TrEMBL record:
Its main location: membrane. InterPro entries: Poly_export, Poly_export_N, SLBB_dom. Residues 282-303 are annotated as: Disordered. One of its GO terms (biological process) is monoatomic ion transport. Belongs to the BexD/CtrA/VexA family. This is ABC transporter substrate-binding protein. It is a multi-pass membrane protein. It is found in: Cell outer membrane.
């Protein structure tokens, strides 16, 4: 009797605990009214990215018009994991963390060991004074540096999408673009529970967690939460609570199902062995009785 009362007393607490364990702790939504009043870049209100900083594994194009004979400098150069690019015969230079004008200046200064200032475009003859004038390295018209492939600035999309992973950022993507690039949502996804997590830049206080109203973006054309993506952004698509609860309960029940399946298999195997042995015993006993009967009917020495 006491055990029954205890079980009844505990039962109302079991369901909430299971639900809490299944759903987990979710980040509190930021009100969309505040987002609408903010200056966050979004669709139709995009902002220009800051000047591009080269990092591995970007591809940069370096071209020098007047290099040494048989030693041209042209084509694409991969920024290696150590932050350097190779200039073949002319050595290598460190470019990670630099902008394109800074890389151009560094390339020209490095090549002064091999080429003249005139070949590098650092001096120019003034036709009026007939004197040579110095040209800043960044303004040289003999050396060209540009980005061939933007590979280092990325964003991430995780959760219940068809193709989660890391995608390269070109500076124009929005949340809707990212979901489409990932192949869309899985049937188990919760469209009403999507977050954009934006890491805090160095020196900032905290990370931004922004809600995404996918239904409003797609069905109503509302761009309030269709944010412009920045380098390092994380889009998280959460699973539907019903599906999460089902998975949680299945995990809890799986050990019991394993034990029950083992017992059933053992019982079936035991019964199968008994069934296979039964005809053999009957045949053996029948043979023995027949032999006894024959011996009684035909005693030894009687024909």
């Amino acid at each position: 009797m006491d055990r029954t009362r205890t079980a009844r007393w505990r039962l109302p607490w079991v369901v909430p605990l299971l639900a809490l364990a299944a759903f987990g702790c979710q980040t509190v939504r930021t009100p969309e009214e505040k987002i609408a009043a903010s200056n966050l870049p979004r669709e139709l209100e995009k902002t220009s990215m800051p000047e591009y900083v080269v990092e591995p594994p970007d591809l940069i194009r370096i071209e020098v018009l007047e290099a040494l004979p048989g030693r041209p400098i042209t084509g694409e150069r991969l920024v290696r994991p150590d932050g350097k690019v190779s200039l073949d015969f002319y050595g290598e230079i460190y470019v990670a963390g630099l902008t394109i004008p800074e890389i151009k200046e560094k390339v020209i200064i490095h090549l002064r060991q091999f080429l003249t200032d005139e070949a590098l475009g650092l001096i120019e003859l003034n036709p009026e004074t007939l004197e040579y004038e110095k040209i800043p390295p960044r303004e040289s018209n003999r050396v060209f540096v540009d980005i061939a492939s933007y590979n280092s600035k990325v964003y991430y999309i995780q959760g219940d999408v068809i193709q989660p992973g890391r995608l390269v950022l070109t500076g124009n993507e929005t949340v809707l673009d990212a979901i489409n690039y990932a192949g869309g949502l899985l049937p188990t996804a919760a469209p009403q529970n999507i977050r954009l997590v934006r890491p805090a830049p160095p020196g900032a206080c905290c990370t931004q967690v922004l809600p995404v109203n996918l239904a409003a973006i797609v069905n109503a054309g509302d761009t309030t939460t269709n944010y412009q993506l920045m380098p390092g952004d994380r889009i998280v698509v959460y699973r539907d609570p019903i599906v999460r609860t089902s998975v949680f309960l299945n995990r809890l029940a799986e050990p019991f199902f394993t034990v029950v399946s083992g017992i059933q298999f053992y019982s079936f195997a035991a019964r199968s062995l008994q069934f296979l042995n039964q005809p053999i015993n009957n045949t053996t006993s029948g043979t023995s009785s027949n032999s006894t009967g024959t011996s009684l009917l035909n005693p030894a020495g009687v024909r």
